[in-house]
Amino acid sequence: MLKSAFGKQKLIPIPDSREYMQSTEKDVGREKCPSCSRRVSELELKENHKVCPECQYHFSMTAWERIHFMADPDTFQEFNSDLRSINILDFPGYDEKLESAMKQTGLKEALVTGQCTIGGYPVILGTMDSRFMMASMGSVAGEKVCRAVEKAIDLKIPLILCTASGGARMQEGMLSLMQMAKTSAVLDRFHQQGLLYMTLLTNPTTGGVSASFASLADIILAEPGALIGFAGPRVIKQTISEILPADFQKAEFMLKHGMVDKIVNRLVLKDTVESLLRLHLGGKNG
Amino acid sequence: MVKRHFDYEEKYKNLQGKFEELQELSKNLQFDLTNEFKLMEKKMKDIRDNKYQNLTAWEKILLSRHQERPTVRDYIEFIFDDWIEMHGDRCYGDDRAVIGGIASLKGIPVTVLGHQKGRGTNENLHTNFGMPHPEGYRKVERLILQAEKFKRPVLTLIDTPGAYPGVGAEERGQAGAIAQVLMTLCSLKVPIISAVTGEGGSGGALALAVCDRLLMLSNSVFSVASAEACASIIWKDAGRAEEMASALKLTAQDIKDLGIADEIIEEPMGGAHKDFETMAKKLEESLVSNLKELLALESHELNEQRYKRLRQIGRFQEN
Ligand SMILES: [Zn+2]
Fold first, then answer.
1. How far, in Å, is the centroid of ligand 1 from the Cα of B135?
2. Pick from B187, B197, B128, B198: which is nearest to B163 by CA?
């Protein structure tokens, strides 16, 4: 039921970045590519998995778009969908922010987790949605990551997390910071089982998420152009007041500096992930 | 305007000076004011006591960053015997914002790690204001694994505004270095005790705070990000840092109430810098007694407890 509701939602064009918002009325149904400025029709974008046909710019995917893209059709079963954030610190405005994020996205939190198959291989898959309060990690995201990891340990199957996050959910104070330690603890147990953990870093992966579970995978993939780093570029600019390198903190920069295994174009992402699964698990599809 | 300095002690000193002047002057008077003076003095003390018992979160932040606040090195040199500092990550360099080494705590060999802030501009430039780069976290990683090999407990002292946000730090993998330390600490087979002695800032502080016991000095703070940063990001107004400090629930008492800190070590009147020796002795006592308890546990028990301790952190609704 829940799933079909999201399925419907998928058809409604959802603005993913500020550039979308600025489009004028005559451009309805056509998105302006932030990289090459070409107007891309909704259908074109959808058929090309939200990659600009002109310049290969990777538009953000929502959590469910990502799931439908990665998982074999009709195999994804979500779990822990009922976990919701609470305003434990009585932080001013947090309830309202959660409310509007839920309304805007149809999600209860920024992270969706579940089980599915990819290329026939059973995996635990998690995706994050940057429209939901910049996919900041609070108690719920931390708990959902942990439960996903535990499920993968239980079932002895690989874990794949597609990350996107602006960092810790400040409105939950230290409880949110501690999720970095909590997810690391559970992942340590996962690794002791000899199981495969892969992350796909998508735009943006920064702060507490990059400094915990996103970086603790056996294999770290990244989408082209994704912003990846610990501190946000704005903070760095303020601190050092220097001009930053042009590709600073982009996936390509991180690859150059040895921080990610591979940058994968979305159009071959599924093939790459399937090959990696096959190389670890063996079997068919050869 | 956001208050930038904690100046109550200055005020108190001025008040006391004036009071003494008044007492001196009154000697020439015909009548005896001794009782009145006693009352006044008591009142001054009461107001001061009251002030320190009711510091706001922002005042605690200012105290935790106080110029004269003892640094981690001060504590190490006072508390431990035979402190031998170890340098470098064996890969890139030696980060002076994080110090580490081996020492003896009441005859028990331990590995000690901590953030090092400086006093004054020169020292702070040398230690980068206690803000580590990735090589700092890789030094930590190296020394905690060494501690495990030789079955030495690990003690960490926390005092940092956060990990350094800069080009070099990003180029050398700040995020990955912190994440790796977090994960290594989770499964380390020796006891880990952490104490926040000053500022506990963000992930850069957390990397030294995955432990079996978290102690906090009473005016220390521990926060997801600095109050200034949170105010400018969430409210787009860095000027509201004082208000943000209260909203973030970052004082030692808040952190204990959230079930993250285990013990608060009361600071002397006016803050740790007012009576360093008393403060350091108190911290030493707490470290010793907590370490004794932890050393009584088998390594697998220790691990299980640490895991449970971390695993249960977080509050949410499920239905
Ligand atoms: Zn384009």
1. 38
2. B128
Domain shared by B164 and B242, yes or no: yes
Mutate to test the interface with A, among B92, B188, B315, B318 (most CBs of A within 10 A): B315
Are residues B43 and B72 both part of a single domain?
Answer: no
Q: Which of A19-23, A63-67, B68-72, B155-159 has the lowest mean pLDDT?
A: A19-23
Q: What is the pLDDT of residues B67-83, one digit of tens each?
A: 999 999 999 999 999 99
CA of A58 from ligand 1 middle (Å) equals 8
In a domain, B296, yes or no: yes
CB-based contact, B305 to chain A, within 8 Å? no
Distances (CA, A) of B25 to A108, B18, B193: 71, 11, 54
- The percentage of residues in chain B with a pLDDT greater than 70, rounded to a whole number, is 99
Same domain, B100 and B211: yes
Q: How far is CA B197 from CA A100, B242, B282, in A?
A: 39, 21, 12
Q: How far apart are CA B276 and CA B260, in angstroms?
A: 26
Mark whether B67 and B47 lie in a shared domain.
no
Residue B300 near chain A (CB below 8 Å):
no
Per the structure, the complete domain to which residue B29 belongs is given by 9-54
- Residue type, position B56, single letter: T
Say if the Cβ atoms of B258 and A146 lie within 8 Å: no
All structural domains of chain A with their residue ranges: 16-59, 61-281
Same domain for B164 and B239, yes or no, is: yes
**CB-based contacts of A275: which residues, under 8 Å, 6+ apart?**
none
Residues B257 and B133 in one domain: yes
Taking the CA of residue A188 and the nearest CA in chain B, the distance in Å comes to 6
Distance A17 CA to ligand 1 centre (A): 14
Say if residue A127's pLDDT is above 90. Answer: yes
- Closest listed residue to residue B141, CA positions, set B183, B201, B84, B194: B183
Contacts of A230 in chain B (CB under 8 A): 163, 165, 169-170, 174-175, 178, 203
Residue A27: what pLDDT?
55
Per residue in B80-136, pLDDT (tens digit) is: 999 999 999 999 999 999 999 999 999 999 999 999 999 889 999 999 999 999 999
Across A261-284, average pLDDT: 94
Report pLDDT digits (tens) over B20-58.
Answer: 888 888 887 777 888 888 888 888 888 888 888 899 999
pTM above 0.95, yes or no: no
- If asked whether residues B73 and B29 sit together in one domain, one would say no
Cβ density class A260-280: b for 16+ within 10 Å, e for less: bbebbebeebbebbbebbbee
What is the domain count for chain B?
Answer: 2
What ranges in A131-172 are assigned the alpha helix state H? Answer: 139-155
B268: its two tokens: 């002397």
Question: Using CB atoms, which residue from B222, B229, B314 is nearest to A182?
Answer: B314
Asked if B155 has any chain A CB less than 8 Å from its own CB, the reply is no
Q: Give A24-44 pLDDT, tens digit per residue.
A: 445 567 889 999 999 999 999
Instruction: Tell me how far apart the alpha carbons of residues A277 and A279 are, in angstroms, rounded to a whole number.
Output: 5
Does the beta-carbon distance from B170 to A229 stay under 8 Å? Answer: yes
Residue B274 domain flag = yes
Question: Does one domain contain both B135 and B238?
Answer: yes
pLDDT at B1: 55
pLDDT band (50, 70, 90) for residue B2 = low
Q: Does B186 contact A214 at a Cβ distance shorter than 8 Å?
A: no
Protein fold of A61-281: 2-enoyl-CoA Hydratase; Chain A, domain 1 (3.90.226)
Is residue A6 over pLDDT 50? no
The C-alpha of A228 sits at a distance from chain B's nearest C-alpha, in angstroms, of 9
